[in-house]
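Support reply, case 0932

Customer input (verbatim):
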Amino acid sequence: MGKSLVVVESPAKAKTINKILGSDFVVKSCMGHVRDLPPKELGIDVEDNFKPRYVTIRGKGKVLTELRKAAQNADAIYLATDPDREGEAIAWHVAHSIARKDAEIKRILFNEITPKAVRESLEMSSALDLEKIDAQQARRVLDRLVGYEISPLLWKVIHSGLSAGRVQSVALRIICERDNEILAFEPQEYWSIEAFIGREGTVPFKAKLHLRDGEKPEIVSGEEAEKIVAELRAQRFVVGEVKKRDQSRRPSPPFTTSTLQQECARRLRFSVKRTMAVAQQLYEGIEVEGETRGLITYMRTDSVRVSDDAINEVREQIGQLHGPNYVPDSPNAYKTKNSAQDAHEAIRPTSVALHPDRIKHLLSQDQSRVYELIWKRFVASQMKPQVLSITTVNVNAGPYVLRATGNIVKFDGFTVLYSPIKDGDGDGDGDGTVGSVPDDIAAEQVLALNELMPEQHFTKHPPRYTEASLVKELEAQGIGRPSTYAQIITTIQDREYVEKVDNRYFLATERGHTVNKLLVETFPHIFNVSFTADMEDKLDRIEEGQDNWVDTVGQFYASWKDHLKEANERRKELKQALQEESDIECEECGRMMVVKWGRNGRFLACPGYPECKNTKPLEEQEQVETDEVCDQCQSPMVVKTGKYGRFLACSSYPECRNVKPFYLGMSCPEDDCGGKVVEKQSRKGKVFYGCDQYPSCKFASWEKPVEQACEHCGAGLLYEKTSRGGASSLHCKVCGTQREEGESAQAA
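Our regenerated output:
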């Protein structure tokens, strides 16, 4: 009797499942996708119902040979790829590539990689979900159509090497529009007034001006503020209404993909990409006390649903760890939003008995920090609320009313374990000399004025997006899905459409604004939030069996193909519209030079081309300040672009002419090196990438390294290739897998 074959995506997952199932099973990894659309052509027959032509991915021939050999002698073939659209598609492609005609093909699904879940999945095997496969195919075809038919317009109008993406370009638009909001913002002056008051001999407390003649005061000048201060000094301060109430603060639900990404960004300063890589490791399995098992449930989910078994287990643990007072009478229930697919549980520990402290020594630092966050968030989600006692005091002063609010914690509840934080949580009261509202304060008490503090303010522009807030916005607008957020953000950075200010806030580059302007003006109905969100809903309808994928793709294609044809006919006009006339005269023919785009940024060119081919660097470049400090004069370093790409230069130029290589923001991949990867150039001016510790470290690559784990083999780096036509792809040097940037569901 032969063994059963189980096929999974990654070697790490295969190792874990193999230890669970034992010798009766052969567990093999397909290393991710095995078939895809051809990399150098459209691969879609538009005239034949958008029929895709799949080919074996380069480097996967050996993998498929091994899988076919294993399948020949297998009694049954179990496809155990991830329980989502992408996983279903991988299973379908594997089945198509390796299955015998008489083979028994079974699909098994599990939300967590534990002995119980894996064995139960074998008993509940099913057929492949064709509707889910159709939904993935629709997404793949849509992304390929956009990438292969619209991107060349960018090459012709701006320069080669650019890309458009059905989702990535909308994310870029969101950032560009926020930049424009900030640029157009005009701050408005306003003033606030605070009083430090209290009974004689007691520590004063702070109260803010709340009402004037029964209405909210709008103080727009210092003169008006000083007038009010003078009037307040002449008033008698008497306690008016005193309100006391209890307020319950419920815990947050367990993590979804987006909330995990947001919280790791806020608390750990992790990028979205880094968060997902670590979560993948925790899901695929770690050896714990002689047993290899996954530590968390599947990390791509938009549901807050939790199994009854998990709820019962965590309630028991809460009682043991914190006492019965912290266990609610009934489990806390959370509502999954209507747009969520709800195919999987929320992200939670596979067993809350595995306390973070218990397994900390078995995990890397990143794994330990992310696991602890997931564990605490889940346990806290099933604890009692925090209870605050809120005291609100109105103090009457003639025509004015000042208000003071204080609170004390009556019951800490879930915050004993997990205190929520938000971006921009407030500042304290300052020097600690101001006390809280007294517990015994009562109406009609006369208070003494200690100090009046008028303060000038200006309205603030909306904040720039961070990774956390961008993910939140994408989710709120229905752009992309949990599995795509990381790649969306990675792609727009890798394409140099956006960069980070202070290593945190997104700022669209000049290139990004130019690409966005062209796409939005040319295809306004395609690259917008509502259309993209609607398309995500249609993909969900395909998965639910409500819509036909060919019809959906056909409607999408028809909505922009004529616009694309028109844009290509007008590309010279579009190109000219992006050019700016400078005040610099061409020294060869006397014409006024224009600003054009090239692969390495903007440059000056003579408009008399081809009769006059004079070009020169654009001297006046936008200087983006960095966190780097000049080691010669201590001035901030700025990013500049030269003939051979980006570099760091001292902002005090020409007084200081110090320059440095442009760091990619990633560590050298060589073991025990500790250096950083920088852009360099060869003697012939060709850009390459190497370690700043050369010659002690010899790491170098002509291809740009991208700090992104291979989804197929787990390698820590991918490398960017650019074809002569300007199309870019990412490939893994370990397993050979290659895919175009910004096209597939994985690539957003």
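We compared this against your earlier run and they match. Two observations from our side: Residues 564 and 600 are 26 Å apart (CA to CA). The radius of gyration is 30 Å. Please reopen the case if you see a mismatch on your end.
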